[in-house]
């Protein structure tokens, strides 16, 4: 019941905000304002519903330390995409053909802020966090990763491969980021920075969607397996490898910090065994 309440309320706020952002059809000031407003309202709705349904402070979105955590996530996201696009460019799959649009990049800032925050509060803040408490970290990571991939299956130019890639490299990675840090700021920063670098800086398609020109005007070509084809770099094998590497790093950190939640039945069995041995 708690999962349903949180999911309904947070999803409703996120959907309303996202629809308003889409309705202004890339008007630069309105997209920026509505995008940032959607991000803020989604976080406020999440904090409120956690207090209401769980009777606790929503520490995973606490303001204290938010800037540093967002910055760490953003550095990982930008660095990861820069490494991916550099590898694609090295094999001739990405080429800059000129300067794009500062206005387009500003609009994309608002759009990506809304997308990153709404998806993180729904998929990591509600789904992964609550499901993890019932079935453990590993199973929750796999389940919510699949759901995250399926949420992109109707995107333009989506394929079975792009859906699998998104599930693994993004769904798994962002859940692992939450598991390692136990806050939503790092996955939000990572998610936003990846998307912003992809569309607003390097001028490529994001999850199959075309957008206003970013700072660079570019073309992509070559084998789909390397460039990602019409879906964009997220369907590239380079992105899959990078996502798996970052996921492994976060999971290792989660394990070292003792943040991996065991399957409840296994945990109960271990507790009973320990009690009998005393």
UniProtKB/TrEMBL annotation:
Which Pfam families does this UniProt record tie to the protein?
A: Rce1-like
> What residue stretches are annotated with the CAAX prenyl protease 2/Lysostaphin resistance protein A-like domain?
105-196
Q: Name one GO biological process term.
A: proteolysis
The domain of life for this entry's organism is Bacteria
Looking up InterPro entries in the UniProt record yields:
Rce1/LyrA-like_dom
Q: Is Hydrolase a UniProt keyword of this protein?
A: yes
Q: Any keyword Magnesium?
A: no
* Entry's Gene Ontology molecular function annotations: endopeptidase activity; metallopeptidase activity
Q: Which residues cross the membrane?
A: 32-49, 61-90, 96-123, 135-154, 160-179, 184-203, 235-254
Keywords, A to Z, come to: Hydrolase, Membrane, Metalloprotease, Protease, Transmembrane, Transmembrane helix
Record-given protein name: CPBP family intramembrane metalloprotease
Originating organism? Amycolatopsis rhizosphaerae
């Amino acid at each position: 019941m708690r999962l349903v309440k949180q999911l309904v309320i947070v999803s409703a706020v996120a959907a309303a905000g996202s629809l308003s952002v889409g309705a202004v059809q890339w008007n630069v000031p309105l997209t920026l304002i509505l995008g940032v407003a959607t991000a803020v309202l989604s976080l406020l709705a999440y904090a409120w519903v956690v207090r209401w349904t769980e009777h606790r402070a929503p520490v995973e979105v606490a303001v204290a330390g938010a800037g540093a955590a967002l910055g760490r996530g953003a550095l990982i996201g930008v660095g990861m995409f820069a490494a991916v696009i550099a590898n694609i460019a090295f094999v001739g799959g990405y080429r800059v053909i000129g300067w794009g649009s500062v206005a387009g990049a500003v609009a994309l800032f608002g759009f990506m802020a809304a997308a990153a925050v709404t998806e993180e509060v729904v998929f990591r803040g509600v789904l992964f966090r609550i499901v993890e408490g019932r079935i453990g970290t590993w199973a929750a990571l796999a389940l919510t990763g699949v759901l995250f991939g399926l949420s992109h299956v109707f995107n333009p130019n989506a394929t079975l491969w792009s859906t699998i890639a998104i599930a693994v490299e993004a769904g798994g990675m962002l859940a692992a980021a939450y598991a390692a840090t136990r806050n939503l700021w790092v996955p939000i920063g990572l998610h936003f920075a990846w998307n912003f670098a992809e569309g607003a800086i390097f001028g490529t398609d994001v999850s199959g969607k075309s957008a206003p020109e970013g700072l660079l005007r570019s073309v992509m070509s070559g084998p789909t397996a390397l460039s990602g084809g019409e879906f964009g770099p997220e369907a590239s094998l380079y992105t899959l490898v990078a996502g798996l590497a970052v996921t492994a790093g976060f999971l290792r950190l989660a394990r070292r910090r003792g943040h991996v939640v065991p399957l409840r039945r296994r945990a109960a069995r271990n507790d009973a065994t320990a009690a009998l041995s005393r």
